[in-house]
Amino acid sequence: MATLEELQSGEMQGVKRLSLSDQLTQFPPEIFGLADGLEILDLSNNRLSALPDDLPRLHQLKVLFLNNNQFEAVPEVLAQCPQLSMISFKANQLKTLSETALPLQTRWLILTNNQLTTLPASLGQLSKLQKLMLAGNHLQALPEELATCHNLELIRLAANQLSVLPNWLLSLPRLAWLAYAGNPFCAEWGTASKQSQDLEPIEWGDLTLAEELGQGASGVIYRAVWQRQGTSQTVAVKVFKGDLTSDGSPLDEMQACMAAGSHPHLVSVLGQVVNHPEQKAGLVFPFIEADYKTLGGPPSLASCTRDTYAPETQFPLAVSLRIVSGIAAAVAHLHDCGILHGDLYAHNILSRTSGDSFLSDFGAAGFFDPTDLHLSSALARIEVRAFGCLLEDLLDRCPPPDLAAQGDRWQTLKHLQQACLSHQPSDRPTWRHLLETLDSLVIEP
């Protein structure tokens, strides 16, 4: 994080990335002195409400973060920025997004937690759009023109006022990650599951928190000791922050997590925290051994929608098969419960070297009516595409000796992966077919 003084002194010359948070009310003109190299500009957590008309002078600018500012409209000058492709206005006061505000090369647009009631039809002209984050607005409908955004892979619609989930959305050829909880159209979905949640209440006073294990958008996870009836048990406790995330509401996440029930490849819930001193919500989970690691890293600015991995990462074929077989079984179980995970990614999978794995993070999950065969089939095939991306990641990192020794098995998996990624959703395999095929290929240790 730079300071305004460093910028004004000329110390930042030649930088490609600039982050500046200093209660700014105006765009610092000294930034234009970085125009020849600046690609990423982060002016989040200021008090900005406008951008200069000559912003396109930043001719190398590709990424612009303006989160937690005071914008009420997306400035139209953005459309003139020649290389700008990622734009984020999370947690502003946006009420207006005009037809001419966005550059045609936009790939990634974040408008989470604003006050938008409508979106322009011109979004349909963003042919390169891959990621669209709209959670936490007041949208009552989506423009049908979005149906022409055939590169759209991830969309977050949670916590809006949508009265219907459009059929064209379910037919997008590359859509793989969808979140929609907290809208009127799905208010009744999962009612039976929510009402049947009978979790053990766990007193906050019976939990002794130790170190923080991790932190996500919706909450903080701690290692803890649970004292009960004279015994103690090491557990993991997730304390929810209560704030809206890019995926949706923590309350919706909690409900889906509790309704998911028990499965060998899901981290089951032991109970619900009660009587937190700050009245925060929380869930208690079994403690996962330290040899379980996150399978991959989250998407980067460059990869946009795809997970990232260290360059040396390899996945032996037998291990990959065990991982994907377990995860496929977990997702199929969720669908049987009327739950769409919505965020099926390697960075939400915990695994160890044997291939044992757990699917975690219900932040993007949503309920659906499993008796609505058209809807449930369409949602299932969206998640099949996400599974295809995961399978592709693992197969692309198969060690050469495995390719030589298990070429036929690898080729069968490759054909399966390609089918999962079909641009025609109806051509993708069902989860039942996936499970049967994977079970027939698993290599026993």
Automatic annotation (TrEMBL):
<dbReference type="InterPro" id="IPR003591">
    <property type="entry name" value="Leu-rich_rpt_typical-subtyp"/>
</dbReference>
<dbReference type="GO" id="GO:0004672">
    <property type="term" value="F:protein kinase activity"/>
</dbReference>
<keyword id="KW-0547">Nucleotide-binding</keyword>
<keyword id="KW-0808">Transferase</keyword>
<dbReference type="InterPro" id="IPR017441">
    <property type="entry name" value="Protein_kinase_ATP_BS"/>
</dbReference>
<dbReference type="InterPro" id="IPR032675">
    <property type="entry name" value="LRR_dom_sf"/>
</dbReference>
<dbReference type="InterPro" id="IPR000719">
    <property type="entry name" value="Prot_kinase_dom"/>
</dbReference>
<keyword id="KW-0418">Kinase</keyword>
<protein>
    <submittedName>
        <fullName>Protein kinase</fullName>
    </submittedName>
</protein>
<dbReference type="GO" id="GO:0005524">
    <property type="term" value="F:ATP binding"/>
</dbReference>
<dbReference type="Pfam" id="PF07714">
    <property type="entry name" value="PK_Tyr_Ser-Thr"/>
</dbReference>
<dbReference type="InterPro" id="IPR050216">
    <property type="entry name" value="LRR_domain-containing"/>
</dbReference>
<feature type="binding site">
    <location>
        <position position="238"/>
    </location>
    <ligand>
        <name>ATP</name>
    </ligand>
</feature>
<dbReference type="Pfam" id="PF13855">
    <property type="entry name" value="LRR_8"/>
</dbReference>
<keyword id="KW-0677">Repeat</keyword>
<feature type="domain" description="Protein kinase">
    <location>
        <begin position="207"/>
        <end position="445"/>
    </location>
</feature>
<dbReference type="InterPro" id="IPR001245">
    <property type="entry name" value="Ser-Thr/Tyr_kinase_cat_dom"/>
</dbReference>
<dbReference type="InterPro" id="IPR011009">
    <property type="entry name" value="Kinase-like_dom_sf"/>
</dbReference>
<dbReference type="InterPro" id="IPR001611">
    <property type="entry name" value="Leu-rich_rpt"/>
</dbReference>
<keyword id="KW-0067">ATP-binding</keyword>
<dbReference type="GO" id="GO:0005737">
    <property type="term" value="C:cytoplasm"/>
</dbReference>
<keyword id="KW-0433">Leucine-rich repeat</keyword>
